[in-house]
Automatic annotation (TrEMBL):
It comes from the Bacteria. It is a multi-pass membrane protein. Pfam families: LrgA (PF03788). The keyword Transmembrane applies. The chain crosses the membrane at residues 25-41, 61-79, 85-108. The keyword Transmembrane applies. It is found in: Cell membrane. One of its GO terms (cellular component) is plasma membrane. Keywords: Cell membrane, Membrane, Transmembrane, Transmembrane helix. This is LrgA family protein. It comes from Caballeronia concitans. InterPro entries: LrgA/CidA (IPR005538).
């Protein structure tokens, strides 16, 4: 479990470094996740090593939102003028996320169905 956590943190740090060095407009953890995705595509067996830790992190995912929630509560007075924009951004991003997830799921189901017919 420690090895897989170290691997996940390594990819996050790599993403942070690449994002910083190349001054990318994308957050470092996102770059790290893309690097991790490329790594897992190149070496599918590595997913077995990471799977246990990833599942544990997902089980406790709600705890990771606590610092962000506290930060929003502390900064509430500064955010008052942007409430409409924030709510609109949340609605649009949630709708887009659901739509993209549905499209990807549909494509994967078609692909899986085509593979089973062979």
């Amino acid at each position: 479990m420690l090895l897989s956590l170290a691997v996940l943190l390594l990819f996050q740090c790599l993403g942070e470094g690449i994002s910083y060095l190349f001054r990318l407009p994308v957050p470092g953890p996102v770059v790290g996740m893309l690097l991790l995705l490329a790594f897992l595509i190149a070496r599918p067996r590595a997913a077995e090593v990471i799977e246990g830790t990833a599942n544990e992190l997902l089980r406790h995912l709600s705890l990771l939102f606590v610092p962000a929630g506290v930060g929003i509560m502390v900064s509430a007075s500064a955010l008052k003028g942007s409430v409409v924009a924030i709510v609109l951004a949340i609605i649009v991003s949630t709708t887009l996320s659901i739509a993209v997830t549905a499209l990807v799921m549909r494509a994967l189901m078609r692909r899986h169905g085509a593979e089973q017919e062979r």
